[in-house]
Amino acid sequence: MIGNENALNDSFAYVRAGVDVAIYGRPGSGRTVFLQRLGSELKSIDYRIVRVTGIAGLTHVHLAGLAGAFPDPVLTSRSVAVAAFMQRLVDEAADGSFAVIIDDADRLDDVSWGVIRAAQHRRPFPVVTSHTRAKEILQGARNPHLARAYQIGLQPLQLDEMERLLVARCGGPVDPTTVSRIFGKSGGLPGLAIGIVDVGVQEGRIFQEDGYWAACDDLWSSTLGRLVERHIGPLRRREREALETLSLSPTIDMAGVVSLLGRRAVERLEEKALLTFEMLDGQQRAAITPPLIAEYFRHLALPARSARMMQGEKTLLVAGRSMTPADASEFRASQPNAVFVRAVQDSARIRYAEASAAWRDDASAKNALAYLDSRVDSDVALPEIRAVIAKATPDSDLDAARLTLWHAAWLAAHGQLASATELLRKEADQHTSLRPLLQAARVRLAWLYEGYTGDVYADIDEPGDLARDVAGCVHVIRAAVLLGQGRIVAAEDEVSAVDPSSLEAEWAEHEVIRGFIRLAKGEHAEATMLAYGAFERARATSDAAAIRSTAYLAAFCQVVQGNYSEVTNLVETVLAVGSPKATAPSSLLGVLCIGSIAAGRSGNVGLAAARLEQVNRLLISDGPLPGMSASWARTQILLGEGRAGAARQEIRDGAERLWVRGARWSATMAHLIELELWPDVERLAALADRFDAVEGELVDALREYVEGLVHDDPIRLEGAGPRMISTGRAGFAINAYDHAAELYESAGKRSDAERLRNRAEALVDSLEPGSFDAGRFHSAELLLSAREIQLARLAAKGWSNQQIADELVLSVRTVESHLHRIMKKTVTSNRRALSRFLSDTAR
Fold first, then answer.
1. b/e map of 645-675 (b: 16 or more CB within 10 Å)?
2. Is the distance from CB of 425 to CB of 432 less than 8 angstroms?
3. Per the confidence metrics, is the pTM higher than 0.85?
4. How many domains does the chain have?
5. 27 and 103, same domain (yes or no)
6. How do residues 503-542 score in pLDDT, each as one tens digit?
7. Domain that holds residue 792
8. Beta bridge partners of 622
9. CB neighbourhood size of 613 (10 A)
């Protein structure tokens, strides 16, 4: 069983306490599997289990349920049978380790229920039941047998759980985009997901390619209709029509749904968990759950009816609203549940339907571009692209140029960078008035895919008198390239020349560049606030490309700070919306690399390796901005395996590749990590010119810290502490204070050492466990001081505080203080967990 572990643990505990439990879940939620797992867990502690199943066709047959549980010779007298079954249950419960588990309890006949309750009255034992109703407002109102039961609801799977389920079902890794599609269609219900996979494999829509299972075309099949009917079969005609109406209508808010369907219909559907509301774009948006129901109605609807419903209810569409950074002040992203994923997919579907209709009506270049944009995350073939471009009739040179930009981006994303570059060069020669835009696009493609070491001011002309939106695009591209080169001041000048209100699809890239500039300047809190404001705006508008780019910025801010659980959440959100097909995968590269690093630093080696494997399947393994490097992720894994020499060579080679491709900011960060882990005076001197070439407090503060480590200089280390805190790296500050304290101690300056230890301790106490990155390399030798390692090992052996104090000639109070700090730094809660940590990091 995958998922619902907390529900399983609660049910197990209630049964052991002798309490009845009612398990609620809709069709496909895994109720039967859940009960099987619960029964197995109870049997493992010597419980005897009687399993009873309610059968729809036998609901009115007396004792049908118990007859299936006790297949003894048939008793002709009903009264004799009742007494015999009751006594059998009483005998089974004699020693107390006994439970009855009833699947589909709402279909169990009343006489069987009466026998079970009568036996329970004579000899108490717990009864576990499962029910198909997803929401029971008044428990017992519909089934009087449940009056004493505690209620537990089965929740839909999360994205990572869905991935594990599909991998287990397919017997191998599954393409992330395919996981996202199935997750969105199934609503997170494991039974539906398995049905989609089985039918997809059988009909050839899901197949194995290059070791991965992937989906092509539409995953809908009429074979899935029976799975959907399990959800909607019991509905009344009006409820079914209401669902159909909503399925064929555009996304609307709560007021619009009430206006469309009526309040009573909405309440009935919501009570049956077929309709839910998700906060999107500042509004409560309606969503059918599971979303496969909506697909069912769309595929069954007649074309004329479908077209009328899609176009006739547009007055109910909700206007968009962008969030301000203040709305994301807590810096926490919502988990990517199936409703959100489906909202993104539905948004893309609606854009495609509208763009296709507009393109059929009017073959203008503007409509052609909108049509191609609507397919940016789908598999579109080159002949179709060329056919669209050939058919389009540009109203202006700008329209023609924008089509060329889309075509070039598609070519580059499919490994044809040279063709893309040549296409842009020819277009620039033809449309000299738009040369800066086309030059910028050519530089951007080089910068993304193979690197760029040139001068943007020489290679990209000034935008001059171009329209504000076009000039804004040019400035954003120049700023991005300058940022990657470590020229922070010049990048900020370019961004300041942009009018944000003029940007359309480029708004997310503009916000990402702005955020990285703030981060480079050492303004971590401001950068994080900006990142989450942009991310929430992207999430609210269901824009997959914007979600990927803004989540990358937010994830990098969090990995700098050391908040790895939040990094994981952001990574899952990006994976949930799928992979780009017609644009550079640079943001996805950054997110996956950061996700692998965070997993490695958290000790999850398997997840770190899985994310790195996803990186290896991308077209590029190095990108232009920090975090976009498979080398960083690979280094983290090697360190976790204890292969320090290989890790050092990997990060050194990776940094060199980044420098050569022009990603100087990213390369400098990698060089400084190498020197932090392996201090070397000669290496530091050799890299000094590179450090001097990169601007910004983020790099300068880390450089001071590393120089303090290399030269064993406690004054520099102490000075680096506050700078580390202001740039968002409190874990670095703790390490700086600890190392400086050891150096002062060695020099006989005990008062200075004690002062810094107190400062470090105060800083640790002020932070939430797991929110800082003192142990980012998941190694006790890097995380703890030599004295702390010595003390931790004794504590892990089971020594008392007094024994440790006697051995190390310390006071008991000092030992207690050290252990408190060690457990906070290692995010452990007791000595057994500390022992596991030391064992894991010693590999």
1. eebbebbbebbebbbebbbbbbbbbbbbbbb
2. no
3. no
4. 5
5. yes
6. 887 888 999 999 999 999 999 988 998 998 888 888 877 7
7. 779-843
8. 629
9. 14
